Amino acid sequence: MAEPVRVLVTGAAGQIAYSLLYSIAKGDVFGKDQPIALVLLDIAPMMPVLEGVVMELQDCALPLLREVIPTDKGEVAFKDLDAAILVGSMPRRDGMERKDLLKANVAIFKSQGESLDKYAKKTVKVLVVGNPANTNCLIAAKSAPSIPKENFSCLTRLDHNRASSQVAMRCGISAEFVKNVIIWGNHSSTQYPDVHHCKVNKQGKDVACFDAVKDEAWLKGDFISTVQQRGAAVIKARKLSSAMSAAKAICDHMRDIWTGTQEGNFISMGVYSTGNSYGVPEDLIYSFPVTIKDKTWKIVDGLAINDFSRAKMDATAAELVEERDTAVSFLGVTTEPQPSAPHLDAQENLEARL
Ligand code: NAX
Predict the structure, then answer these.
(1) Mean local confidence (pLDDT), 203-228
(2) What is the CATH number of the domain that holds 37?
(3) Range of the domain at 71
(4) Comparing 53 with 336, which gets the higher pLDDT?
(5) Which of 54, 73, 134, 262 is spaced 20 to 30 A from 99 at the CA atom?
(6) What's the domain count of the chain?
(7) Which of 232, 236, 122, 124 is nearest to 187 (CA)?
(8) Domain check: are 144 and 163 in the same one?
(9) Of 131, 154, 177, which residue constitutes the final position of a domain?
(10) How confident is the model over 304-332, as a mean pLDDT?
């Protein structure tokens, strides 16, 4: 059997991790024959809760799970990592300004980026989930200069899956028959779910999404707002943010990095923009359509972009530029992150969580 892959999950005592860890530990992400060492990072006050999570993982008696390492220390958590899934972040507290939230997260992701730089393998693949995911990812990447920026990505796969599923339900088919939706931009309500290149497989034949759905007004209206607002709708209904679907999307994202995308399919993820694709400004983590081979992503270039799409792609880019500029201004002046209070009332976090 192969050597174990060493995988870090941060925010490991939280609700997404509770859905995520079982799937990783049983082989859904890194392969059914790939042993795993799981490193679980959370903040010091959460160590007793994390102990319970460790007990449950042990009680699953999973053949691939070789080791579980709970910790609140960066030098333990980031050591020799093959993969890092950064879920934990500062949630919005009552009365907290957006700027203060960003500042607290810059402090967390700067420090985690520095730890990656210092302790992880240079080949480590880093997936940022904690919100604001795109900007947190950029800050982590900037703080780890010895690791290629291409090794960093942020999660927009949940938005991608939401979009595929909306189209599938509209056509009365399974989501596996919908491919190549695109999420452009920020994992926020300015994201642009785009179906202009999406194909729906009907009776064995690929049909353009607009022809399969036959409702342009819906595709250009309610479909987009439903996907953009889906996180808020889940919070309203569940009084907690998406966790099961977020965990599934994290698995899809990391599995595709590890094993590649299928021929002819692309998926969405937030990756580093060099300014050379689709007129998106450089130095942003922006969600693009990508294919993945040999653990390396490539933006799908050359897709036609109409005026409708252009305006929406630019709007979400503008939001990211502003967020980046504010975050970068905090880089030199960040204070130590305070321990966050997890499991806050969901409504308080509404704006920060999608
Ligand atoms: P929870 O509040 O249940 O758990 C978060 C955990 O992170 C807590 O145990 C907390 O103690 C820990 N934590 C906080 N600061 C930390 C630090 N500096 N180092 C290590 N651990 C730390 O939140 P949960 O529902 O699990 O959501 C986690 C994050 O995912 C949130 O930021 C949320 O907004 C974000 N999401 C991102 C999504 C995406 O598509 N990109 C979708 C789902 C989710 O909303």
Answers:
(1) 97
(2) 3.40.50.720
(3) 5-154
(4) 53
(5) 73
(6) 2
(7) 232
(8) no
(9) 154
(10) 96
